[in-house]
Design brief:
The protein is an all-alpha fold. It has a domain of 84 residues: ACP-like (Non-ribosomal Peptide Synthetase Peptidyl Carrier Protein, Chain A), CATH 1.10.1200.10. Helices cover 44% and strands 0% of the residues. This is Acyl carrier protein.
């Protein structure tokens, strides 16, 4: 059976970045057996996010130092597939224009000077002028 792209990527990272002995990269080996601790796992996830574009908003459930290499591959493949589906269905929202976000500017004539509130114009006229 051919290794999946995620399995190749994960074993490549463990071998090249984390300097794990290639002979130790067996499916039944736990990440802890391969020398990974919780900080190493976080570093691995950051690399996958930054270099591979896998959206990992938080550490995937079930992915710990005790997870086997085969389980880690399965968990990361599932998480990557979920992130991809969510990305495809995402609606891009345009930012609000400054006029919608900015508070109205009140001119001095509509402000709180002498006779405020006693004029014939509405407060809206002062805001729009």
């Amino acid at each position: 059976m051919n290794p999946s792209p995620m399995q190749e990527r994960l074993t490549g990272l463990l071998r090249d970045h984390f300097e794990v002995d290639p002979g130790a990269l067996r499916p039944e080996a736990s990440l802890q057996d391969l020398g990974m601790d919780s900080l190493g796992l976080v570093e691995l996830l950051v690399i996958l996010e930054e270099e591979d574009g896998i959206e990992l908003l938080e550490q995937p459930a079930g992915l710990t130092a005790e997870t086997t290499l085969a389980e880690a591959v399965r968990i990361l493949e599932e998480h990557a597939a979920i992130g991809k589906r969510q990305g495809e269905g995402a609606v891009v929202q345009e930012p609000l224009s400054p006029s919608v976000v900015s508070p109205p500017v009140v001119s001095p004539s509509a402000g709180g000077g002498a006779g405020a509130g006693a004029g014939t114009g509405s407060a809206a006229e002062g805001v729009l002028s």
